[in-house]
Structures are given as C-alpha cells and as structure tokens.
Amino acid sequence: MKLFGRKGDAASDDHRGQGNGHLASAGPAHRLTLDLARAEKLAAMLAKSRASRAVEIADLLAGMYISDWERLSEYWEERSHEEVETFLQGICRISPQRWHSWIEFYDGERRKDRGLNGWHPLRRWKKEPMNDQSAQPSAALASVLRQAEQITPFHERTSGRSIPILTSECVLLCIARSYGSEISRKLAATGLDAAKLERRALSPKRGPLV
Questions:
Q1: What does the pLDDT average to over 65-82?
Q2: CA-based, 20 to 30 A from 96: which of 14, 38, 102, 107?
Q3: DSSP-based three-state secondary structure for 162
Q4: How many Å separate Cα 135 from the centre of its chain?
Q5: Average pLDDT score, the chain
Q6: Rounded CA gap, 71 and 169, in Å?
Q7: Residue 160, pLDDT above cutoff 90
C-alpha cells in the first residue's frame, strides 16, 4: 500500500498509471523521507481500522505522532507535551487499548530496524495485503501535500524532472497553515511554535533521509 510516491516504487507507480492514462508517464508527484513514510504506513492502517477509503489529515498527523513524537515534540514547550499528546491521541478515534497496541507495534518496528529483537503484537497487520485502491488521501490531505510540494527545500532530479521530497516538518507546517480548519485551530491552541517549525522546515541544517 503506497499512498504517496516514493523512490523505488516503480511497480506501484505503474499500477496507478494504468488507471490514469496519460498520467502514467508523469511519475510520482513527490518522494517521502523515511520518517514520513513510516507515518504514511500507520495512517493507512488507521484509516483501514475505520473501514474508510479516505486517509484524512488526522490519520497522517496521528501517524507522525506515533512514529516520531520524540522529534516533533521539540516544536512545543515541554510543559505543554501532556496536553499535546492528549490532543493527538484523541484525533485517532481509537480505544486506549488499540492505541497502546499501535505504540507497541511501532516500537517493535523501530527495534527491528536497528537490528534488535522485539515483540511485534500487531505483526498480523504486516501479513494482510493492502489494496492500492482501498485508501487514498482525502481532498483535504491531498491539498496539504500539494502545499508541502511547493515549500519543501529538497528536490530530487530524475529523468529530467525535479521531484519534491516531503519532510515531516514541511507537512506539519502545511497542516498548521490550513487556516480555518479544525485541526489547524487546535494545533495553534496547543502552543505549537510555528516560527521554529517554519525555520526547520524551510531552512534545515541537514538533508533528509530518503
């Protein structure tokens, strides 16, 4: 299941192109960093758990939180972390038991990536085939991703094209900039340091891991 194009996903790109006619030769609209790709996978799983065919902004935001909170937490003051986590957990719309299962699953995945032995309580999710047509970005999420394509400072040159590389910071910034949306208002209310986030998103000190 690939929601958004990534490097090395030629087979997935070809599959999508079959239904898009002339768009098949255009290639993916963007690439994802490794951390955002992990969040993407979890977002698809969250949508699937609701039997939804649309992956919402809340799903991706929840995926970013579960898979990379340690990194994203720096955009809030430490005293606000508990409030922010309560908000982010709430937007997932899942039970506390299922929530802890997601956390355990992703902790196990990270341990596996590091070559450590870890218990995977939700390994069955990895065994279930995901239909490429079962979950696609909602209109609101697609709009956020298009905005992130415009502001990201990272691009990859391939086949004469410049493909934007999306980072978690760029996507989070675009979510926060979705003025008028409920999630944007709630993020602002949690004390998100938008100025710091903007600096890190637009003028990063190092390149992304893709």
A1: 91
A2: 38
A3: strand
A4: 14
A5: 76
A6: 10
A7: no
Where residue 33 falls (left for φ over 0; alpha for ψ -120 to 50; beta otherwise) is beta
- Residue indicated by tokens 């919402």: 56
Give the closest residue to 137 by CA, choosing from 43, 64, 67: 43
Residue 72 backbone phi and psi in degrees, to 5: -75, -20
Find all residues with CB under 8 Å of 184, minimum gap 6, and list them.
175, 176, 177, 178
Tokens of 166: 């999306």
CATH 1.10.1780.10 fits 10-20+28-202, yes or no: yes
Question: Which residue do the tokens 């340091």 mark?
Answer: 193
For strands 136-137 and 155-158, give the pairing: unpaired
pLDDT for residue 146: 96
Torsions phi, psi of 9, nearest 5?
-100, 40
Tokens at 100, concatenated: 């802890």
